[in-house]
Amino acid sequence: MPAPRASLADIAGVWRSATSARDDDAIVGMSLSLYVEDPGSRVVRASDVRRTLTRLRAEPARGLAVVCDIVDPDGCACIDGFALLCSFWSNELGGEVCTVDELYVGAAHRSRGLGSGLIRLLVQGRVPRFRDAVALELEVTPTNRRAHALYERLGFRSRKNTTLRLRR
Fold first, then answer.
1. pLDDT tens, 80-120?
2. Which of 3, 40, 56, 149 is buried most deeply by CB count within 10 Å?
3. Domain limits of the chain?
4. Number of H helices, E strands in the chain
């Protein structure tokens, strides 16, 4: 008989800034898993993710990488979540916008409030780097209905504008 799944109360998850090589290795692995589960328009390689992490550390005004430390009921600790939080200024909104560029929680810890917990920290201004952000924004793959429903429950609304992109 399989062990019962731990409840939310049994899982402690703490979001913090990514600061170490161990954090980077975990983010690279999870980012690659994210793109296997939800492929983008181009293949993302480990070197792409490492370049992003290096740039965010060198230029903190661009944003922040965060990881979620998980401790299960047996006291085992791991990193099983990450997010890339990027910044841009919006003239229309009159301030800095925090873009949740990627948000991922490992399958074993999904549906336990970890991703929504990070969004709530951002909304409440409890992530120091984005304390003064006037808005949060993110993109959702149209077929990822589960993520879309989560973000709508958290207060995100679709915009009338469509994102266009030109790669160079």
1. 999 999 999 999 999 999 999 999 999 988 888 999 999 99
2. 56
3. 8-153
4. 4, 5
Structure tokens at 11: 């899982």
Q: pTM of the entire structure?
A: 0.86
Let me know if domain 8-153 sits in CATH 3.40.630.30.
yes
Contact partners, residue 147, CB within 8 Å, separation at least 6: 140, 141
CA distance 124 to 109: 23
What is the residue type of 86? C
Low-confidence ranges of the chain (pLDDT < 50): 1-11
Q: Give the count of beta carbons closer than 10 Å to the beta carbon of residue 155.
A: 10
| DSSP letter, residue 149 | H
Asked if residue 95 lies in contact with residue 66, where contact means CB atoms within 8 angstroms, the answer is no
Rounded Cα distance between 37 and 45, Å, is 14
